[in-house]
Amino acid sequence: MMEAFVLIIVKPGNEEKVYNKLKDKPMVKEIYRVYGEYDIIMRVEVSNIAELDKFNDEILRKIGDIEMTETLIASSYRV
Fold first, then answer.
1. What is the DSSP letter of 54?
2. Domain annotation covers residue 78
3. Rounded Cα distance, 65 and 72, in Å
4. Residue 61 per-residue DSSP state
5. Which helix (H) or strand (E) holds 55?
6. Torsion sign (Cα): 39, 33, 5, 44
7. What is the domain count for the chain?
8. What's the domain range around 69?
9. What's the Rg (C-alpha) of the chain?
10. Which of 37, 38, 40, 72 could form a disulfide with 5 if both were Cys (CB 3.0 to 4.6 A apart)?
């Protein structure tokens, strides 16, 4: 399993609309409205990088109210 955090900038006034389009997707495990440079942050769990690509291409890029995303792939510390 692979985790990623997606930071999203939304067209002003469309935050709730984007939230509603994403909240029920099975790979979206957490989603929050945040203050600052980004409007939404979500934690996504996927099986592999190909599934993350598919999520990005088939879901995120098709939401016209999203202006920009930044995807951070989670790693773990080796202790």
1. H
2. no
3. 21
4. G
5. helix 49-58
6. negative
7. 1
8. 2-73
9. 12
10. 72
